[in-house]
Design a protein that fits this description.
Layout lengths: L4 E6 L5 H12 L2 E4 H16 L8 H7 L5 E6 L4 E6 L2 E2 L7 H11 L2 H14 L5 E5 L2 H5 L5 E6 L2 H14 L6 H17 L12 E4 L5 H15 L1
Parallel strand pairs: 1-6, 1-7, 2-6, 7-8
Antiparallel strand pairs: 3-4, 4-5
Helix pairs in contact: 1-9, 2-4, 2-5, 4-8, 7-8
The structure holds cytidine-5'-monophosphate.
GO molecular function, one term: kinase activity
Catalytic activity: CMP + ATP = CDP + ADP; dCMP + ATP = dCDP + ADP
EC number: 2.7.4.25
Length: 227
């Protein structure tokens, strides 16, 4: 079997990472969650600079970038990697709504993207990789062997995210999540540098009315057809 590169892009909370993780496991590939990388950078500058909507100083953020070290460490038991920010496992903390609220603004900075895209290209250079994000099929691996673009209705996505965060014990309202999903969609699709869009050669999968198993089956079939 030849090793291929699989790019999975789409809006927030479409379930990209769940499917991507499972697919990588099945194929014995590396899984890279690029959203986790943008989230970890955001967490770092939030801690250092108390970044908020009104306290957002691009210059200071950029000055901190050289001090950020990101790494995925594979966890045998989980079957996938977890993200480490300067040697600290931040997998849980980066999923908090506080981080989701600021991540799209930090991700829009070209210097941040440049730094992370470089790392992502390096991680996928030997192929045998499933990478999910917003710009994988358009910018990181424009020559990916398989590109999938996941979509679902805004309400469905907010509902899923709400359930997920409730299960983790975060105390937030559905409306707050819906608002965050809409806001991130808007910022991610309208930013100047690498906006979220479907690559011309990507296959669109609308999973509004699909179960996880159905999505997974569909994606595995698409991948196996290419290998
Ligand atoms: O995938 P996830 O929802 O965790 O991504 C969080 C945020 O990181 C996105 O809303 C987007 O602003 C940013 N992101 C990005 N490019 C990627 C992956 C994520 O700009 N490749």
């Amino acid at each position: 079997d030849k090793k291929i590169t699989i790019a999975i892009d789409g809006y927030s909370s479409t379930g990209k990472s769940t499917v991507a993780k499972q697919l990588a496991k099945e194929l014995g590939y590396i899984y890279v969650d690029t959203g986790a990388m943008y989230r970890a950078v955001t967490l770092y500058v939030m801690r250092k600079l108390f970044v908020t909507d009104t306290n957002f100083d691009e210059e200071s953020i950029l000055r901190h970038l050289p001090f950020i070290n990101l790494k995925f460490v594979f966890d045998e038991e989980l079957g996938h990697g977890e993200i480490y920010l300067n040697k600290e496992n931040v997998e849980k903390e980066i999923r908090l709504l506080e981080v989701s609220k600021h991540v799209s603004k930090v991700s829009a900075l070209p210097k941040v993207r440049e730094m992370l895209v470089k790392l992502q290209k390096e991680m996928g250079k030997d192929k045998g990789v499933v990478m999910d994000g917003r710009d994988i099929g358009t910018v990181v691996f424009p020559d990916a062997d398989l590109k999938i673009f996941m979509t679902a209705s805004t309400e469905k996505r907010a509902e899923r995210r709400y359930k997920e965060l409730m299960e983790k014990g975060e105390n937030i309202s559905y409306d707050e999540i819906l608002e965050n999903v809409k806001e991130r969609d808007y910022l991610d699709t309208t930013r100047k540098d690498s906006p979220l869009r479907k690559a011309d050669d990507a296959i669109e999968v609308d999973n509004s009315n699909m179960s996880l198993e159905e999505q997974y089956e569909k994606v595995v079939k698409l991948a196996k057809d290419k290998i």
